[in-house]
Amino acid sequence: MRIERDTERGRAVTLSVNGQSLAAFEGEMLATAMLHHAAAFRRDTRGLERGLFCNMGSCSECMVTLLPSGRRARACLTPVSDGMEVRTDG
Ligand code: FES
Fold first, then answer.
1. What is the pLDDT of residues 10-29, one digit of tens each?
2. For residue 52, which of 33, 29, 76, 30 has the smallest C-alpha distance?
3. In this predicted model, what pLDDT tens digit does every residue of 24-52 receive, in sequence order?
4. 2 three-state secondary structure
5. Which of 54, 71, 77, 81 is disulfide-compatible with 58, CB 3.0–4.6 A?
6. Separation of 31 CA from ligand 1 center, angstroms?
7. Which residues face 15 on adjacent strands?
8. Is 65 exposed, middle or buried (0-12, 13-18, 19+ CB in 10 A)?
9. Atom number, ligand 1, closest to the C-alpha of residue 31
10. Long-range contacts of 10-13 (CB under 8 A, 24+ apart)
11. The whole model's pTM is what?
12. Are 68 and 44 in contact, with CB atoms under 8 Å apart?
């Protein structure tokens, strides 16, 4: 859910999470965009979906892989950018 009233948005951007195209706005964190679009975060060893826990960079539950570099990052601390590609299964 995004606040829709009495707020200003950054420029609209498009990113890809596990091949799914997501619309977001500059200034948003990747985790915000993923939550808004109900995109899956990583899975545990039993294949069950995990989600955000702390939303402040402490727990690593939101760890994703940024492509093409393969760099691991916390979605809750990573700002979106246009054309960004992300995987959650890495
Ligand atoms: S949700 Fe805990 S580090 Fe991102």
1. 999 999 999 999 999 999 99
2. 76
3. 999 999 999 999 998 889 888 999 988 89
4. coil
5. 54
6. 9
7. 22
8. middle
9. 4
10. 11/82, 13/80, 13/81, 13/82, 13/83, 13/84
11. 0.89
12. no
